[in-house]
Design goal:
The protein is of the alpha+beta class and about 180 residues long. The protein folds into two domains: about 10-70, no CATH class; about 85-180, Barwin-like endoglucanases, CATH 2.40.40.10. It has helices at about 5-15, 20-30, 160-165, and strands at about 50-55, 70, 85-95, 120, 130-135, 140-145, 155-160, 175-180. The protein has a six-stranded mixed barrel with strand order 3-7-4-6-5-8. Strands 1-2 form a two-stranded antiparallel ribbon. Strand 5 and strand 6 form a beta hairpin. The longest helix is centred in the N-terminal third of the chain and has 13 residues, at about 20-30. About 20% of the residues are buried.
């Protein structure tokens, strides 16, 4: 058999609990024209350190310690990062390495994976960031040096698979490039 309770019966059941004063207070505040959100003393609502009260409490309304606080609605954008500074520029021929080396260790100990924006250089320190620009098509990308090489001909840099795709070097295999070492 299905049982239903009226609101009056529910109020009688809850009359001994601490919820009734809070429910009554919030329903009374919600029916007035100057309604504010009310927090019960047992629930602590904390906002960011730069909280702003929803409105000032006057003498006939809710005490200020029960007002819910909220953050300002204006979003604050992070400061823009300064453009990296170019410390050295050179030109030469670039090549790329890929499928035959996937899974091998690079000179700095990392595992070489497909699609990486990394490169091999003979002398630059590991972790150096270099902007590589393909002079045939103007496309560029920033790579991180994590390997040594190339040791063939007059090549200046050996790009990882992902970097070679970014600058359009995969189909040709070799291309003239400009290297800009970034700080």
């Amino acid at each position: 058999m299905r049982r239903t309770f009226s609101l009056g019966a529910l109020a009688l059941l809850l009359s001994g609990s601490a919820l009734v004063p809070a429910i009554a207070e919030s329903s009374r505040a919600a029916t007035t024209n100057d309604a504010v959100a009310v927090a019960t003393p047992s629930s602590e609502i904390q906002g960011p350190s730069n909280d702003v009260a929803i409105r000032e409490a006057d003498s006939e309304s809710v005490p200020p310690e029960t007002l819910i606080k909220q953050a300002p609605s204006t979003p604050i954008a992070p400061a823009p990062k300064p453009a990296p500074r170019v410390v050295q520029v050179s030109q030469g021929t670039a090549s790329w390495y890929g499928p035959g080396f996937f899974g091998n260790r690079t000179a700095n100990g990392e595992t070489y994976r497909p699609g990486t924006l990394t490169a091999a250089h003979r002398t630059l320190p590991f972790g150096t960031r270099v902007r590589v620009t393909n002079l045939n098509n103007g496309r560029n990308t920033v790579v991180r040096i994590n390997d040594r090489g190339p040791f063939v001909g007059n090549r200046v840099i050996d790009l990882g698979h992902g970097a070679a795709q970014e600058v359009g070097l995969v189909s040709s295999g070799l291309a003239p490039v400009r290297l800009e070492v970034l700080q």
